[in-house]
Design brief:
Layout (H helix, E strand, L loop, with lengths): L1 H7 L6 E6 L3 E8 L2 E4 L3 E2 L4 H11 L13 E6 L2 E10 L6 E6 L6 E2 L9 E6 L5 E10 L5 H7 L9 E6 L26 E9 L13 H20 L2 E2 L8 E3 L10 E3 L6 E2 L20 H5 L11 H18 L5 H11 L4 H13 L13 H25 L7 H8 L2 H15 L19
Antiparallel strand pairs: 1-2, 2-3, 2-4, 5-6, 6-7, 7-9, 8-9, 9-10, 10-12, 11-12, 13-16, 14-15
Helix pairs in contact: 4-6, 4-11, 6-9, 9-11
Pfam family, one: Pkinase_fungal
InterPro entries: Kinase-like_dom_sf (IPR011009), Pkinase_fungal (IPR040976)
Protein name: Fungal-type protein kinase domain-containing protein
Length: about 450
């Protein structure tokens, strides 16, 4: 019930409700840090408390009810219509208003005790199409706007327009502001702050590949990987490569912008040649590198690096390849199900087995062109070779040479050059001569 309230009221910050029995009453609050509740109160012995609780929950003040008043709608003929979203800039102290293009966010995460991510299509006063992203971020994590601010002007990476940091103002900018102070370990909760970013709106996500040509898919992957290298050169490692985080650049997008890398929620500041990254396993399961999955929880494993992200690009491509209808759908679906397994060892083990196979062009579903299939096979061979080289350095993880790992990572420019060449060589010349469409059904073969 509470989850549905959050979904139906996308500007909801918290939900407060009462549980009433014949003798007792209890107040419960749900927010992005979880739930907290009051002791059972005998309202026969304390009738004033019952009255005060009901009066408080019946308030007509939206802030007191847990609603974000920076998001509001218009009403047309008694129905909710697109309204406005206000962004307060913590530095300039200015308020900017963006017009909704739809009354509902196009993305709303349904997890109760998570980030509560909401994404809205909006436009500014000049009619430019933009994206507003709201999320609740753990206080120990670097807000996305920090990374986005550092990559303004970096080609192929999502571009920031403006941001709002909830820690700088507002009663409801942090969860701790509307929760009682912790007086015992049992009351501990993970404080989170509200973050809002406004970015440029790009094309469709890679998930919508069925309406694209093979050339458009190849170009989008090429430019997204090139953007990933530029991002790394800026000192930022993405850490969450997936089909949903690669966007098509839009119709007639120029080279460099045909694929856009978005979502720096899990990104980390990282200079691969000076120090390892923190030991954590972030990302979208079906695209996570097999090495990170298989070594999760092992003391002394290497941190997430750019090679893991390059492998994630490969898994994103492989999922796209096997998701189209073809003759061996059942086997492919079972394979992808294993890659998505909640068990990290199962997912990582099955990915390793796939990389160790001798993949051939004939193994690629026939709905793809031979040229596309050769590209996939070549990328499989390269990723497999690099993974095995990295594993040879790591050994059994009891004792491995950081110097040897640095020597491998010092080949970063060559690694990106080779991967980008695989995609570039697969592009038709000129593009107009290749109109091989991605099939959407068996009939389109």
């Amino acid at each position: 019930y509470t989850r549905e309230i959050f979904l139906q009221q996308p500007n909801r910050i918290f939900v407060r409700t009462l549980i009433v029995t014949e003798k007792h009453i209890r107040l419960i609050q749900f927010d992005r840090a979880g739930a907290l509740y009051s002791p059972l109160i005998n309202y026969h012995a304390n009738p004033d408390i019952l009255i005060r609780l009901i009066a408080g929950l019946s308030s007509t003040t939206e802030e007191e009810l847990g609603l974000d008043t920076s998001v509001w709608w218009e009403t047309i003929d008694g129905r909710k219509a697109p309204g406005y979203i206000m962004v307060y800039h913590p530095v300039t102290k200015e308020r900017t208003f963006y017009r909704m293009r739809s009354a509902d966010p196009f993305l709303a995460r349904d997890d109760l005790c998570e980030r509560g991510t909401r994404m809205w299509d909006v436009k500014d006063d000049e009619g430019a199409q933009l994206l507003v992203k709201d999320a609740w971020i753990e206080e120990w994590k670097t807000p996305e706007y920090v990374h986005l601010s550092k990559v303004v002007g970096v080609e192929g990476v999502q571009q920031l327009v403006i941001y709002e940091d909830g820690t700088s103002h507002g009663m409801y900018g942090e969860i701790k502001n509307f929760r009682p102070e912790c007086t015992s370990p049992k009351q501990w909760f993970q404080n989170k702050s509200f973050q809002r970013v406004v970015t440029v709106r790009y094309g469709e996500p890679m998930d919508s590949y069925k309406s694209k040509t093979e050339a458009e898919i190849i170009a989008a992957f090429h430019d997204a990987i090139a953007a990933h290298e530029r991002l790394l050169d800026s000192g930022i490692l993405h850490c969450d490569i997936s089909l949903g985080n690669i966007l098509f650049g839009g119709e007639n997008a120029p080279e460099g912008l045909r694929g856009i890398l978005i979502d720096l929620d899990y990104a980390v500041r990282h200079q691969y040649y000076t120090s390892p990254t923190p030991d954590f396993t972030a990302g979208t399961r079906y695209c996570q590198s097999q090495l990170l999955l298989r070594s999760h929880g092992i003391c002394g494993r290497p941190g997430h690096d750019y090679l893991d992200d390059l492998e994630s690009f490969f898994w994103a491509l492989i999922h796209l390849v096997y998701r189209v209808p073809h003759n061996n759908c059942a086997a492919a679906n079972k394979l992808m199900e294993d890659w998505r397994s909640d068990d990290m060892q199962v997912s990582g083990g099955m990915k390793k087995a796939f990389l160790d196979e001798c993949l051939k062009v004939d193994h690629i579903p026939g709905v793809w062109s031979r040229n596309f299939a050769r590209m996939v096979v070549e990328l499989h061979r390269f990723i497999g070779d690099v993974v095995r080289e990295k594993e040879a350095i790591m050994g059994d993880l009891t004792c491995w040479s950081f110097a040897n790992m640095r020597r491998l990572q010092s080949m970063k420019n060559l690694h990106y050059y080779f991967v980008l060449s695989i995609f570039k060589d697969a592009l038709p010349t000129p593009p107009e001569h290749w109109r091989h469409m991605v099939p959407t059904s068996r009939q389109s073969m």
